[in-house]
Amino acid sequence: MADGQQVLEDERRGFNGWRKRAIVKVGKKLRRHFDKVIARYSDIPTSPIIPNDVLPWARPLEENWQVIRGDLLRMLEERDRIPPLASISPDHRKIARGDEWRSFFFWAYGNRIDENCARCPDTARLVDAIPDLVTAFFSILDPGSHIPPHRGVTKAIFNSHLGLIVPADAEKCWIEIDGVRHGWSEGRLMAFDDTYRHEVRNQTDAQRVVLLVQTRRPVRYPGKLAADVFLGGVRHSPFIGDGMKNLARWGR
After folding, report:
1. Which 8-state DSSP code applies to residue 131?
2. Distance CA 7, CA 26 (A)
3. What is the DSSP code string of 85-123?
4. Which helix (H) or strand (E) segment is 157 a member of?
5. What is the pLDDT of residues 108-166, one digit of tens each?
6. Which residue has the higher pLDDT, 8 or 173?
7. Most CB atoms closer than 10 Å: which of 26, 121, 132, 184?
8. From CA 250, how far away is CA 148, in angstroms rounded?
9. Longest alpha-carbon distance in the chain
10. What is the CATH number for 83?
């Protein structure tokens, strides 16, 4: 790269870094107010754990979990081609260290990853049927890994984990949500509000894999308006743009 081009590149990175810090600072201030409105008009519980009976799409996933696991096992044969989450999602780099947390995306930030869906058509078909889908990926956590305590960005979305590979020593593999520890079960879906403080540990000698699904929270007006505005800002942020570029780079 010529000296002039290098200077421009350095300036661009410096500007983007400043812009990201500014967005995070403003977003944290606004998030509390938006979340209050979203929670007030939510059509599902705002408790840490969300019951499956309010999610019509939970049962089809559970009934077909072995089909999904079959796709996963084929992908794990090429595990080194599955990217670490830290290399894809810029906003996860503080909690996704090294390559101990890998991710195979079907949907990312509301965008379908057609190439990956074509490699796992049965899983893609089931995931595509989930209403208000934002993100879906195989979440692969290595033995001895740790995801430190953190909170999600907004109550406008919530997370669900479908257990696909769960270590036998369940007491050493857990997610703690709002101070309460929970374990995964193969074939069972666990939905939770990730704006509550949560932490994950896999202290076993086996990997843990779930299908991680992120969906929009069903919310009545005017909470829906608040959710739309906040999510619109997130989707057009440089974090999402960088994430999509990183996915495309790994795809190549």
Report:
1. T
2. 29
3. HHHH-GGGTTTS-TTSEEEEEEEETTEE-HHHHHHSHHH
4. strand 157-165
5. 989 999 999 999 999 999 999 999 999 999 999 999 999 999 999 899 999 999 999 99
6. 173
7. 184
8. 26
9. 60
10. 2.60.120.330
CA 251 to chain centroid, in Å, comes to: 19
Decide: 214 and 153 in contact? Cβ < 8 Å. no
Q: The tokens of 220 are what? A: 């009545």
| Cα–Cα dist 79/100, whole Å | 12
Can you name the residues that pair with 138 across neighbouring β-strands?
104, 211
Cα distance between the two ends of the chain:
22
pLDDT, tens digit, for every residue of 69-79?
Answer: 999 999 999 88
Residue given tokens 């795809």 in the structure block:
251
**Mean pLDDT for the chain overall:** 86
Question: What 3-state DSSP class applies to 209?
Answer: strand
Domain span at 64? 3-251
Give CA–CA dist 182/138, Å, rounded.
19
Q: For the chain, give me the number of helices (H) and strands (E)?
A: 8, 11
For 101, the token pair is 């947390």
| In contact, 101 and 142? CB cutoff 8 Å | yes
Tell me: pLDDT of 93 over 90: no
**Range list of β-strands (E), the chain:** 49-50, 101-108, 111-112, 133-141, 145-150, 157-165, 173-177, 180-182, 189-192, 198-202, 208-216
C-beta of residue 169 within 8 angstroms of C-beta of residue 130: no
Angle value at C-alpha 92, between 86 and 30, nearest 5 degrees? 155
